[in-house]
Each structure stands twice: as structure tokens, then as C-alpha cells.
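Researcher: Go.
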Amino acid sequence: MTKLVRVLLSLAFLLLYWAPLLLEPRVLPMDDRHVYALLRQAWMSGTVREGASLFIASSLVLCAVTLWFFSWLGRWVARLFGISPTIGHALALLFGWMLLVSVNRWWFPYSNYSYALSLLDSVILGKVALSLLAILLLVIFYRAIPVMTRAQRLAGICVALGGLGLWAISGAAHVEPRSGRSIVIVGVDSLSAHAFASTAEQTPVLHGLYAQSMKYTRAYVPLGRTYPSWTSILSGQYPQQHGAVFNLRGLAHVAPETLLSTQLQKRGYRTVFAIDERRFNNMDKGFGFDVIVGPKAGVLDVALQSFADTPLTNLLMQTQLAGWLFPYAFVNTAIHVNYSDTDFVQAVLDSVGGGGDVFLATHFESAHFPYKTRHAHVKVKTDNPFWDAHVEALSVVDHQVDLLMDGLRQKGVLNDALVVLLSDHGEGVGEIESVVAVDGQPFEVTGYGHGANVLSDRQNRVLLATLVYKNGRVVSAPGEVSAQVGLTDVRAAMERYLAGQEPQIRAKDDCMMVETGIRFFAAENYKTLDEAALAQQGAGYYEVTAQGLMQLREDRIAELVATKDIGVRCLGRISYYVAASGRVYGFALDTQGVPVRQIVPLVDDIARIEAYRNAYRSQFPASSAAPGAGH
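Model: Structure:
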């Protein structure tokens, strides 16, 4: 009977533990046929089933180990206080549940799990509970080893603490001899040139590097989305040319032999791509990379986000073991609740190896919407909460860049290296950039996000700078280039550096092509963003592959391409075709790239736009506007 009671108590513990997730409302509209089709495709994938099984099995093992620990603790509670083992078991499980919930609230303040249990949603309770556990374990330690003298016990504690200290400093890196010339790209997501210029106090490391660099103050992205942007960086081509015309388009449509990473890999370079968020970019080893650092790409990256937010998984995510047991969630900033900023940087440093040439492309995603982080190093308060959260998240990236550069220096990667600082696109946070008259009517240039408005300077002007290192120190002269360049021009500069020339970024043309990505109405305004509506609106455009990857349906690409706004951006003007109206608009730009007045588009600009659109039409014939996909 006693054994049955303990089993029932253990089951009650498990029910209490999982109750917040079981009761949490689901974002996905399960009655939508497109959402249902995606889920069915996902389940048909063996990769998804294996990943889900590993996640469930690992979670169950965590619960089993935790139950064993608290059962063991219960036996000692019964022995120490002279109560029955069953009562001791019950008290230990109750205490353990309170401990997990309250400590989870303390260490992981953004966890939805703790908010679901408002009674225990207390940082103070977590501190008290953890202190009680520590005291109880010390008492058990003294009682469990009665043959040792008090001095021996104290000595044992000192030895244990000393061992921990040695373990902590054993990872201290040392400068390793390296030969050859390396390239390091430090990429920051969603960082506009405007935001960077406005956050010198909050991002001192990035600004310190920028002060020593060759700066490109009029650098733009051809398409402000992560996957197309990175493919443009590696290929030196526009999206229509390299094939990554939208985020999550199938990887097979990009020719890997055209990428710098592939060519360097063939030359013996160790090529690494590191990114701490994979929802928008499935780039893999097929893009010429020996190593991919970050969470595993796939639909489970999205599907398991809420299930990965439990006290035990949150704790395990702070260890390297999580990389094996929870590959879709480990170092995944999309799961901001338990993301470890330092673990991601350490994984990047571990990936570069101990010698030889390195091509390292690193991309930090913490500053991407919804800008949530538990690692912020600053607190910002203005009238715009989106700006505040964005800047706070940028402070996390700044700290990560500090750790990365210090680690690369100690590993010898910066003994002979070109470092490129860049952002893949900018970010709009709802602020009005300018007001211009369009056909005699005032028009506000504003918006949220990126890749949605080619007229927006904040969505499209990016951070871009270069530094040359020798023996761990910057040897290139600082300077500033005000000529317009694009991320498509970065590759040629890297090739010049490898050829022993100055790695100056020079534009191929005075004007560059620009275009928009997919635009869903549900995501137009962050203030009214409805995740369920967004999922429902977008589900019909996606599919899940046999490898478990979320990608755009190829049969829907043509209609999505037809909704693109496509333009020509020059140093003092921009002309662009608006798909919603079928008309080309022209604007004069100030020295910062902000529109100041409407102008008549030049004939040559219109011709370039039409030629680019014709190239798209020949690539994706019989296109028609996608309902609800944007404007």
C-alpha cells in the first residue's frame, strides 16, 4: 500500500510539472486546412519523428532523474525528522515542485511556464527554496559520512571547491601558432545604420571596433531578409541571380559552386557558418561549410519552442549536454527563455579548430523581433517599447562580439585576418523616418520589421566596416567611404584581400537593385501582431520536406514574386515599382538616404527595373498576385 501511495505521489508530481504546458493555449489554428497539411507533412518526415522522439525521451529521462533525486531526498527527510517515509516522500516532492517552479522564475524570467503558476511566481521564493536545499544537502552530507572527522569533511569541501575553480579556469585559451590568412564575418541581425549610430553607449564594443575600421556609411542590402542577404554576401549577386529570392526557399535553387565559401573550402580553408536562430535560414553544409554552428534547422525548431520551456529543460539548456539531447532548441535565441549567449559564442570558438586558414561567417540573431532576451546589459526607457527592447537586445550582441573577438585573438585566428562587420538588413520599429508629398498628398515613410519597404532607409541601410588584423591587432588605417555600396560588393573585397590587395569595398555600379520579400498583412504592425492570424495566413505557402525542413512551396513562388516591389537605388535618388499599384515612383534622397521629395523616375531607371522584373517573369512564368501576401 505504501509503495502504491508513493507511485501515486510521483504521478501527481509529474502531472503538476507538465500542467502549465498542457493548459497553455496553442497559437496554431488547428482547424485551418493549410496548418493541418503542414503538421501532417511534418509527421510523415522520419527526421521529424526521430527528433520529436528524442525530445520526448530526453524530457522523460530528466523527469525520472529528478523524481529519483527527490525520492532520495524524501528518505533522508524522513530519517532526519523521524517521520514516515511516505510523508517524507510527499514533502520532498512538494518541496521539489515548488523549488523548480520558483527557481525557474528566478533564473529564467521570461519563462511562460512560471507565469502560469502565479502563486509560485516569486524570485524570493526561489532563492529561499534553493538555500533550503543547499542547507539540507549539507546536513545530509555530514550525516552520511559519520566516520570522517569534522576537519576531514571541511577539507573535502575545500578540495571540491578548488576542483571547481580549476575546472572553471582550465578553459582559458592560449595563443596558438597559425599560418595563412583568415576571414571573419561578424554579422548582426536587424541592425540598421541609424540604430547603430544611435546606440554608441549601449554597444561600446561594436563602436570600438567601428572606430578603428574602414567605414561604409552608405551601405545597403538588396533584399532585407536573412537568407537572401547572406546568399548575396557569399555570391556577390542579386537575389534574382543567385536564387534565394525569399527566406526559406528550397536550398537546391542556389548553386553552391558560385559561393565564396565553397571555393575557399576547395582551397583547404576550414569553413564555418554560425547562426543562433534557424527559422528563416536553412543554409547547411551544402553551401560550402565544413561546420554549421547553432540549433538544428527544421520545423521542430518552431514546433518545440513552447515545450522546451520547462524548469528542467531550461536548466539543461545551460549545459553542453543539451546540444545532443535537444539539438533544435540548444543555443537557439528564438527560444529566448533559456538561450545562453555565452554557450553560442563558445561553440563558435570551438568550431574554428586549432590551426590553418579559417573562413568564419557568424550571425547573431538576438536583436531580431520580438527582441526578447534575459541577457540584456542595459535598460532603456523611451516612448517606443519596441525601440527599447531592440536596443537592449543589441547590448547582448555587443557582449557576444566582445567574447568572440577575444576568443579568436587568443586562438590565433586574428594573427592574419580580415574582419568584416555587417548587418544583414536594418529594422523599422514604427518610427516616422520622413514625410514627403506623393502626388500632392503627405505620405509618411514608416513601418515595422525589414524587407517590406524599399523606400525605408532604416530597413535597408546597414552596418558595414572592415578591419585587417596582424598578430591580434588592427593594422589597417581607419577611414570613411560615403559612396554607395551594397552587400553584393563584399565578396569582391574579400577576394582582393586573399589576393594580397587592399580589401576596399567598391560598388560594381553606381546604382543597385533593391526588392522586397514576402509581406503578410498580419505582421505589418507589431502593435497588432496576431501569431495565430500570421500562421493561418502564411501556412498555405509552405511545406515540410522529407528532411523535416520548412520551406516555401515552389508552386507558389511565382505569385509571391509578382508581389515584390522592385527598384533602383542610387546615391541621391531611388525609383521603384510598386506591385500593388503597378506604377513606378521616384524620390530624391538626402545625404543619409532618406526621401525628401517626389521626382519623375529617370527613363534609364525604369528600364533597369523592367529588365529585372522581366528576368523574374522568365524565371517564374504565369505569375499572379498572391492574395493577402503584401502590398
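Model: Residues 46-81 form the longest helix (36 residues).
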